[in-house]
Amino acid sequence: MPRFGCKLNNIIKSVNCEHKKMSTMTSEFNGVSADQRQKHQTGIEYLKNVHELSDNKFAELVSAIQALQVAIPSWALGTGGTRFGRFPEGGEPRTLDEKIEDVGLIRSLTQATNSVSLHIPWDIPKDVAATRQLLESNGLIIDSVNSNTFQDQTGQALSYKFGSLCHTSDSVRNQAIQHNIEVIEHGKGLGSKVLTVWLADGSNFPGQHNFRKAFSRTQKSLEQIYKAMPADWTLLIEYKPYEPSFYSMVIPDWGTSYQLSQGCGERAHVLVDLGHHLPNTNIEQIVARLLHFGRLGGFHFNGSQYGDDDLTTGAIKPFQLFLIFHELASGARDAAVDNPPVAYMIDASHNLKDPLEDLMNSLENIRSAYAKALLVDVTALEQAQKNNDVVACEQILQRAFQTDVRPLVAEARLRSGGTFDPLYTFRSRNIRTELISKRGRKTVATGL
Ligand code: RM4
Ligand code: MN
Ligand code: MN
């Protein structure tokens, strides 16, 4: 295996060039043994057989999986923490450029992401032209820009302690609106066309808020932000039931986001973050509803046991993730559904795992859930639903869900120029060690 230099760019180039070399060799498969390659082929044959997939159908599945691209947020490349502590991994990106390089690395290994989301002011580019250039050389674009009115920044005139867009004071609300407009300006410079707003606004004690008035003020503030967006921009309104406010959040649920988006106009949509629901919420039904209303705008993927746990996507509830993709896929097939393209992003935090490994894990799980959803026998399902054959309905879903689709996902990755096993490549090349030697052991990435 070639040695890579100390620059991340060189690592990316070496991954790319090694891939080209390996794909022409028969004895190795991106550093994975011939035996592994054989098993991969056997897996594909098995899939084709069991699901009666013609070569054409198989090729269609592969290209659908290749097309699923999920953005990486600039704030998820460092180690996460809780209010009790943080245990850095080392080699974390110190600057926006290094974050972009990290996403470029994930891209070259997985080919499952082509964009980065930015949180402002955590990641304001110093030199827009240079950032655009760096993005381009890494095959990336900026997905959404995200405003931050949940923290007070140094030098900020007024505090968000008691809210931002919902605040009782005109001046605080105006400051928060102006911040969102600045975020749009940064986004314009970088070629983004999506503004995501997540508000921490809420109350901690009964009586603190006049619920109706707090909602109206928020609606009016959002309308002003919406009006300030260029005509080809989309506003995504994210909801969350609790945290940091523990008695009430101004935008706690999809219904509130939906109502707010309707008030703003047709380019305002709802963003579903998987961790932003109370336990046991039927998220797939929310997805179906929003598709039905044509207002599903974006997704933040992560895994959750209790709340906004921000764990690896699919780690805890893989079946739920599959059911969500089943709704997305069925919405995409239905001509009656008139929904804009959905912006996918991973919104996770990595307290224990290496952030890059964790993000690659999530990408793999997301694509697997999608691949399984694409294997659902929709004709049979529709018939079984018409017949009220509950057992058959469930069996049809289980048949797809229980399929091992890893060979299919790997095949999609390989055909796009990614590696056979991104995690294996990442580890066998000691990429984290390289990053630590380049950036240092105690680096801290901006973010939460
Ligand atoms: C929130 C929410 C937002 C993200 C912030 C950092 O819980 O998920 O999407 O911007 O965290
Ligand atoms: Mn989120
Ligand atoms: Mn969250």
Structure description:
Mean pLDDT is 93; it is low at 1-6 and 19-28. The protein has 448 residues and is of the alpha/beta class. Helix content is 48%, strand content 10%. The chain binds beta-L-rhamnopyranose (RM4) and manganese (II) ion (MN) (2 copies). One manganese (II) ion binds at residues 273, 275-276, 308, 347.
Q: Evaluate the radius of gyration.
A: 22 Å
Q: What helical percentage do the residues reach? A: 40-55%
Bound molecule kinds, no repeats = beta-L-rhamnopyranose, manganese (II) ion
Q: Helix/strand/pairing class, anyone?
A: alpha/beta
Report low-confidence residues grouped into runs of 5 or more.
1-6, 19-28
Counted beta strands: 12
How far apart lie the N and C ends?
Answer: 37 Å
Share of residues in strands: 5-15%
Mean pLDDT: 93
The strand order across the widest sheet is 1-4-5-6-8-10-11-12
Q: Rough shape?
A: globular
Largest sheet: 8 strands, parallel
Series of H and E elements: HHHEEEHEHEHEEHEEHEHEHEHHHHHH
Number of discrete helical segments: 16
In short:
The protein is α/β, with parallel strands linked by helices.
List keywords for this structure.
single chain, 448 residues, alpha/beta, eight-stranded parallel sheet, 16 helices, 12 strands, 48% helix, binds beta-L-rhamnopyranose, binds manganese (II) ion
Which helices and strands, and how do they pair?
Layout: H1 8-23, H2 34-50, H3 55-67, E1 72-73, E2 81-82, E3 85-86, H4 96-110, E4 115-119, H5 128-137, E5 141-146, H6 170-190, E6 194-198, E7 202-203, H7 211-228, E8 234-238, E9 248-249, H8 254-264, E10 268-273, H9 283-293, E11 296-301, H10 318-333, E12 343-346, H11 355-374, H12 378-386, H13 390-401, H14 406-415, H15 422-428, H16 431-439
Parallel strand pairs: 1-4, 4-5, 5-6, 6-8, 8-10, 10-11, 11-12
Antiparallel strand pairs: 2-3, 7-9
